[in-house]
Every structure is written in structure tokens, then in C-alpha cells.
Amino acid sequence: MNARTPAIPETETRASGPAKPRRSRIRRVLPLAALLALAGGAVGGGWYWTVGRFMESTDNAYVGGDIAVLSSRIEGDVERILVADNQVVEAGQPLIELDRRDWQARRDAAAAALAEAEANIATLEAQAAQARAQVASAEAGIAEAEAEWVRAVADAGRAGTLASGGYGTREAVDRTLAARRKAEAAVTAAQAGLESARGALPVLVAQSRSAVARRDSAWASLALAESNLEHTVIRAPFAGIAGNRAAQLGQHVRAGQNLIAVSPTADRLYVTANFKETQLRRIREGQPVELSVDAGGVLHGRVESLSPATGAQFSLLPPENATGNFTKIVQRVPVRIAIEAGQDVARLRPGLSVEAEVDTRDDPHAPRSLLGAAAAMAGHR
User: Fold this and answer.
1) Could you tell me whether strands 332-339 and 76-81 are parallel, antiparallel, or unpaired per DSSP bridges?
2) Are 348 and 266 a contacting pair, CB within 8 Å?
3) Chain-centre distance of CA 218, in angstroms?
4) I need a surface site. Which of 33, 150, 259, 323 has the fewest CB within 10 A?
5) Please, what's the b/e burial string for 104-125 (b: 16 or more CB within 10 A of its CB; e: otherwise)?
6) Residues whose CB falls within 8 Å of the CB of residue 49, separated by 6 or more in sequence, listed in order
7) Distance between CA atoms of residues 211 and 207, nearest Å
8) Bridge partners of 70?
9) Where in this chain does the entry annotate a coiled-coil region (predicted)?
10) What's the Cα-to-Cα distance from 231 to each of 21, 248, 254, 376, rounded to whole Å?
């Protein structure tokens, strides 16, 4: 009797049937996948070698702007608020007005003090002219007294000669002698008057200098009063956007109190990127920068300048590494990036977060993308 061959289950027959074709397909796909992986790795490595390793990026970057925080330079009450929050303003546009009545009165008082000082100078000038005239009169009086003295001396001499010859009387001699002594006294008095008139001139000159100094002081007081009066109007220092208004109508403000701020327009903004010190080896001024704004959009800029010190050195309490235990921390250096003109920067605001990527290659115009770098490499080959 023939032995029966055990039956093979149908499921095993179906499973073992297509196994060989499937394994053959895998063997054919594996080399292709390996080739693609090798090609992708080569392209990626080439991109990193030619482009990627030259890109220095950081997300520690922010939009910056020179915001002017305006404060009151004088004391007073807020009389008018001329702008609303977030309003566009022009350079020199009035923003806030303070009550000017007290400062107007001080300005008028300073002007009156100046007028009084100028009038005092005019009075002293007239007195000095009068004193010079008195000096001239005294000099003329001396000449007259001396001439009278010469005549009296001559009369006394003639009377003495006649009396000694028996032709004149003793009375005539005494009279001429008295006239001579009187003329001598007149000369002495005229000389004393001249000295007195001359002595008054230095006093008037000193008083005039003092009056001029008071006039200059009055000028300075008037200029200060006019400046304070002008400061009752707080104006925008440049064209921008008004914001952060703290002033309220009728509020009494003191000198130095912050009232309002003016932010620059979007075309005057810049980016401050804080790069690690290890990233600064190849960063130079003028290099192109790609800016990815978190609020949306990609902008282009250029490295404008590097800070002269790390950010820690400009902090309120700079680190002192010579004291206590030392732990080395990678420092960051602020890099200012100028935003190129002609771009849509309407959405930019100071303080927005930015990701900055600096292209430090020698040829910043070379392709930066993966495909562009691969095409450039293929072209060079």
C-alpha cells in the first residue's frame, strides 16, 4: 500500500507563493534608496560646507528705535492735550500745553528789569558826560586863575617899584599884594576843583561797569524767562507716533516729570541682535542679514556696527570675575543691523522679536538656498 503524503495547508501555499518576488523588489529598491540618501547627504554636506557654516544666526534680536520720552522742563498745570494716543505727529508739532500765565508774568518782570538796567546805564552815561564837562570847565578855570595870578603879580611888582621911587602909595602896594594872594588862592582852588572833577570820573566808570553787568544779568534773566515761557508748549522732537501719554488735563506737573513719548516712524527703526562671542569671528560691518520678524515677514538688512563692549558691561551691576567663585558664561555682544530701504516695514514696532541670520561669506551675493548652492557647485564642476 502506498503511504499517503500529508496535505499542505492552503494558507501556507498562498503565503509562500509571492515571497520571492517581494524580496526581489526590496533588493532592487535598497540600492536606489542608498543612492538617494548618499546624494542627499552629499548635497546637504556641500551646502553646509559652502553656505551653512558661514551663516551666523540668533533669535535674541529685537526691533529697536530711538524713542523720545518727553518730560516737562518747568512746573505748571496741564491746560491742553493736543494729540491722541498712537497719533502720527510731525517734527515740532505741539503735543501738550501748560498754563502760561505765571511764566508770562515772570517774563514781563524780567523785561521790566532789563528796561530799568538800560535806563540806569543811560543815566550813568549822562553823568559821565557831565563830569567830563566839569573837568573841562575846571581846566579852563585854572587857566583863567593863572592868568589873573600873572596880572596880579605884575601889578604888585609895578606898585612896589613906584612906591620905592616915591611915586606910589603904601595903600596901592597893599592892595596889589592882596590881589596877588587872592589870585594865588584862586589858582589853588581851581586846581582842587579839577582834581575833584577828575576823581568823579573813575567812580562813574565803575558804576557804569556795574550797570552793564546788571544789564547783562537782566538780559540773561529775560532769555531764561522767555525760554521757560516757550517750554509751556511741549513739542515733538521729530516726526513719529505719539504714545504712552501720562499727562492728564488739569494735572499739576513738576520739572522732569514724564508726560508723553514719541516713537520714530517705521523707516527709522533698526534691529539689535545679541550674538554670542563665539559667533563674532567672521561678523563684519556691511555684511547682509536676513531678518525673520515674528510678527510676520522677512526683511533684509546690513550689519551697521558692533557694540564696543558686551551687554553685561553696560548693566547696572557689571560682573566682577575676580571675586568669589568663577563660572565662565558665554557673553553676548549687541550688533546693530540697519534695515534696507524700500521694504514693507509698516508692521514693525520697537520691541518686536526678530530672528537674524548674518551671511559672513566673502561673496554675499552667492546663492543661499540648498538648490541654488547645488546648482552653483554643479556649475563650477
Assistant:
1) unpaired
2) yes
3) 29
4) 323
5) eebbeebeebbeebbebbeebe
6) none
7) 6
8) 260
9) 100-148
10) 93, 17, 12, 63
Q: Show the DSSP H helices in the chain as ranges.
A: 10-16, 19-50, 101-164, 170-230, 370-380
The closest of 202, 201, 183 to 135, measured between CA atoms, is: 201
Domains of the chain, start order: 68-100+232-263 (2.40.50.100), 102-229 (1.10.287.620)
Q: pLDDT over 70 for what percent of the chain? A: 72
Residues 193-250: tens digit of each pLDDT: 767 777 777 777 888 888 899 999 999 999 999 999 999 999 999 999 999 999 999 9
**240-243 vs 353-359, strand pairing mode:** unpaired
With contact defined as beta carbons under 8 Å apart, do 301 and 338 qualify? yes
For residues 287 and 304, the answer to whether their CB atoms sit within 8 Å is: no
Residue carrying C-alpha cell 529598491: 29
C-alpha neighbours within 13 Å on the C-beta side of residue 148: 18
| Local structure of residue 369 (DSSP, 8 states) | S
Give the chain's length: 381
Residue 344 to residues 101, 122, 156, 266, 341, Cα–Cα distance (Å): 47, 66, 114, 9, 9
Phi first, then psi, for residue 298 (nearest 5°) are: -120, 130
CA dihedral 190, 192, 197, 200 (to 10 degrees): -170
